[in-house]
Write a sequence for this structure.
């Protein structure tokens, strides 16, 4: 009877059953790395989208609404009556024609959009009961805007109606006013306001007072005058002449009545931009669409549908441009951490594949000896790793989508796919390269004896040229160099790793000679063992140096950002807290403030902002202080430190003064000159010290003198400068007068980081640096794990020769220290060099400060000692700890297993 053929188990199933731990470890590594690779672009999208939405919301509808306007057509320019385009029906039809044109470029919020008729100038209202702050009569603007009933709640009276005659010759009409306008202008239901018209006077009867349903919405805030009157000032020189200006809300059907005022009536269509769901990656398209509406094909189409003289205007493009400028300064710096982390992650994946290939070297060599082709071996190993890596990569992508919803998927999928492919291909590629030819013996790959090949030399020189080019370009072009900002630190770390690997054997040879003369065998043997490290040690060293360089660069960036914010806040406040008043502060306030919790010192200052040197035309702030207290304040804050002697010592002719450089240049050092104060009195001062900054005057020029030498009217304190660890903000504001402005250093500093774009970039930067550090630690562990079997066998053999357990432990620790020390020293030096090389091209002001209008100037990147030292020390400590643990565990085990006959190790 013929026997059945034997069933051969599939390769993948057999390998997974034989080594489930290795498959699980690969899956975990790929899942974690894929999750991080997918999460990074999603996190960037989220904080950039939040930054754009905040920028749009902060600017408000008066900047983001698309406004289309058209003036009154002149007689004879068309065949129709010029009043026809102002009729409500025509306005509505033109609005419906314009709506798809604008909505195709900028998504429109139709509920808040409106159209109507108003005038370019206000009409004088001579009613005596209207308020007149300086004697000038108030002005009112007539507005007939669509949808009034749907956007208000009637507080008193009723909504206006368009009854009787509603054309340009009307003599009376009805209107409503907002609650703010009614309160400010003393308007009540039934009030009548008469305004000039073309043929006489137009009587506007107020029928109701209305409250806006959404005061901050585009319906009311595109033209804020509709809801809130303004106190306007005539541009004439002399004492200020002000008058109130408010809006009268006519019925939407009374558009023709507005024409009769003769105040250059015009039509308008306001299309509120829908800022919900705006994405930062659409900013460029949005800017182009707005440009088309304002002066391109969109404007031509809009004019063809309505009026040849139609104008379209919006501040939306300015908002988008400002956001893109901020993003262009932030993104390259975040890319530094992302590129460094990506490089370290790739190294770890490659090392994981190399570790698996080393562990299975004998198995794979046997397969090649039995006739397995190289493509066949590659395919089997690829299928084996794909079974574990592909589901893990998909799981990492899914986790990133769940943790960070609401972002684009394309970049996340690309990142997770790249990680999955690297995880699948690492083991097959290592195996294919190691077993190109069939052999059972492993050639020696000692680092000291190995000679770099020509291909390696060419590759190293290529990387060196790329790194030098990126650094030179970045230094010359700054952050506008784009991705070079991200790649320059990484390339610097790679070049440094390759350079150190060439220097490493030379250092070991130099150290081996004096070590050989030492008593005992542990030190010479450890150096000899370190020299026999395989040439493949380039990968862990590359990972460590890249991570250390990225961590040092990132830490210095974060430290520079914190320093810039601290400096800007201190320059703005001048102390830990500050009370300012336009008039003299009450007597005894300084004593009460000094007793508040968290306040350790109070320095009064009398500031006169309208002081004018008699030989000049520009005013300069004159600050009167108590010299001993103020000198102590300058010493504590570091803002232009002076001594009390520099402000004391008044003689019969002049007061010693501290001045800014510009004031000193204009008036000279130690040359007396007179300064006229706001009350007409004069003081004579002479400049005895010059400083760029001083606590009392936070911006611009200044003169600081002894308060005791000023006239009594100018010597009363108007400002209190407070010092203390944590001043109680609530208690301080309760104690301060109503007219005083209270500012705290901590609140000012927090205000510089209020942009979601900056805050999100900072969080992503920290997370990327932390992830890179974690991968570097994993690379170090993989390197030690790769050498563990060989170390265990060596230690077992040496134990048979009389090596004690304590000596064995010291041997393993000392053997691992040279490379860790090399990585630590090289990483510190490389990080310092990268920061010094790249700092001229990197401006941290954008990422540090929410507004460019700050007194700090340009925030420069400088090496941070802690960011350089701590990661390096952590590498050495970790390497020593792992080696100690491995030595302790290895010396506890029996040496029988390691000394088996035929052991390939």
């Amino acid at each position: 009877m013929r026997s059945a053929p034997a069933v051969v188990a599939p390769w993948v199933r057999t390998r997974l059953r034989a080594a489930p731990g290795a498959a699980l470890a690969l899956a975990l590594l790929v899942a974690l790395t894929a999750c991080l690779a997918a999460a990074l672009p999603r996190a960037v999208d989220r904080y950039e989208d939040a930054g754009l939405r905040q920028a749009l919301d902060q600017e408000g509808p008066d900047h983001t609404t698309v406004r289309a306007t058209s003036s009154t057509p002149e007689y004879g320019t068309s065949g129709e009556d010029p009043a026809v385009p102002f009729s409500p029906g025509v306005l509505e039809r033109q609005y419906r024609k314009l709506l798809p044109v604008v909505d195709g470029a900028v998504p429109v919020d139709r509920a808040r959009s409106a159209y109507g008729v108003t005038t370019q100038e206000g009409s004088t209202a001579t009613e005596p009961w209207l308020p007149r702050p300086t004697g000038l009569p108030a002005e009112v603007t007539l507005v007939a805007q669509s949808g009034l009933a749907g956007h208000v709640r009637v507080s008193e009276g009723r909504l206006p109606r368009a009854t009787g005659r509603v054309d340009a010759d009307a003599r009376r009409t009805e209107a409503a006013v907002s609650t703010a306008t009614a309160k400010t202008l003393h308007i009540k239901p039934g009030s009548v306001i008469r305004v000039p018209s073309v043929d006489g006077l137009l009587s506007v009867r107020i029928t109701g007072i209305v409250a806006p349903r959404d005061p901050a919405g585009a319906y009311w805030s595109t033209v804020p005058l509709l809801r809130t009157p303004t106190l306007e000032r005539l541009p004439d020189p002399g004492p200020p002449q002000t008058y109130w200006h408010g809006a009268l809300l006519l019925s939407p059907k009374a558009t023709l009545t507005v024409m009769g005022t003769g105040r250059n009536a015009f039509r308008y269509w306001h299309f509120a931009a829908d800022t919900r769901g705006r994405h930062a990656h659409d900013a460029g398209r949005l800017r182009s669409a707005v440009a088309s509406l304002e002066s391109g094909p969109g404007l031509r189409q809009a004019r063809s549908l309505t009026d040849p003289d139609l104008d379209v205007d919006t501040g939306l493009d300015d908002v988008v441009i400002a956001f893109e400028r901020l993003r262009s300064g932030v993104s390259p710096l975040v890319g530094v951490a992302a590129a460094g982390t990506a490089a370290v992650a790739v190294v770890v994946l490659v090392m994981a594949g190399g570790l698996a290939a080393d562990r299975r070297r004998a198995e794979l060599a046997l397969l090649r000896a039995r006739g397995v082709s190289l493509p066949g071996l590659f395919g089997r190993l690829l299928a084996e790793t794909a079974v574990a890596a592909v589901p893990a990569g998909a799981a990492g992508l899914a986790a990133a989508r769940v943790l960070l919803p609401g972002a684009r998927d394309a970049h996340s999928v690309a990142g997770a796919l790249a990680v999955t492919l690297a995880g699948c291909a690492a083991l097959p590629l290592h195996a294919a390269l190691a077993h190109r030819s069939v052999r059972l013996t492993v050639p020696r790959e000692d680092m000291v004896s190995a000679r770099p090949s020509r291909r390696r030399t060419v590759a190293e020189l290529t990387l060196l040229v790329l790194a030098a080019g990126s650094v030179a370009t970045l230094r010359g072009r700054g952050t506008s160099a784009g991705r070079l900002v991200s790649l320059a630190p990484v390339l610097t770390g790679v070049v440094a790793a390759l350079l150190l690997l060439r220097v490493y054997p030379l250092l070991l040879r130099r150290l081996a000679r004096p070590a050989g003369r030492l008593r005992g065998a542990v030190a010479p043997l450890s150096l000899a063992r370190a020299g026999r490290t395989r040439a493949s040690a380039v990968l862990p060293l590359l990972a460590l140096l890249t991570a250390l360089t990225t961590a040092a660069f990132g830490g210095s960036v974060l430290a520079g950002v914190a320093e810039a914010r601290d400096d800007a806040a201190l320059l703005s406040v001048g102390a830990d807290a500050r009370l300012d008043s336009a008039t003299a502060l009450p007597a005894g306030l300084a004593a009460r403030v000094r007793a508040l919790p968290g306040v350790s010192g109070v320095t009064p200052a009398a500031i006169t902002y309208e002081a004018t040197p008699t030989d000049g035309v520009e005013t300069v702030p004159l600050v009167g202080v108590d010299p001993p207290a103020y000198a102590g304040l300058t010493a504590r804050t570091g803002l232009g430190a002076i001594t009390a002697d520099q402000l004391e010592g008044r003689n019969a002719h002049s007061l010693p003064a501290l001045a800014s450089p510009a004031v000193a240049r204009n008036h000279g050092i130690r040359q007396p000159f007179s300064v006229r104060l706001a009350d007409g009195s004069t003081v004579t001062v002479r400049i005895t010290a010059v400083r760029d900054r001083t606590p009392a005057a936070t911006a611009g020029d200044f003169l600081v003198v002894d308060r005791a030498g000023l006239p009594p009217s100018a010597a009363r304190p108007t400002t209190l400068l407070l010092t203390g660890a944590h001043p109680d903000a609530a208690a301080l504001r309760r104690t301060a007068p109503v007219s005083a402005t209270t500012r705290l250093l901590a609140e000012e500093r927090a205000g510089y980081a209020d942009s979601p774009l900056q805050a999100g970039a900072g969080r992503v930067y920290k997370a990327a640096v932390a992830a890179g550090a974690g991968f570097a630690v994993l690379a170090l562990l993989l390197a030690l794990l790769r050498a563990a079997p060989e170390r265990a066998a060596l230690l077992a053999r040496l134990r048979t020769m009389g090596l004690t357990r304590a000596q064995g432990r010291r041997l393993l620790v000392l053997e691992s220290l040279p490379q860790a020390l090399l990585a630590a020293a090289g990483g510190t030096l490389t990080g310092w060099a990268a920061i010094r090389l790249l700092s001229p091209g990197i401006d941290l002001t954008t990422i540090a400060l929410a507004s460019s209008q700050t007194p700090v100037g340009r925030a420069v990147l400088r090496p941070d000692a802690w960011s350089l030292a701590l990661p390096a020390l952590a590498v050495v400590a970790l390497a020593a700890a792992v080696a100690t643990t491995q030595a302790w565990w290895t010396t506890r085990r029996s040496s029988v297993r390691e000394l088996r006959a035929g052991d390939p190790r």
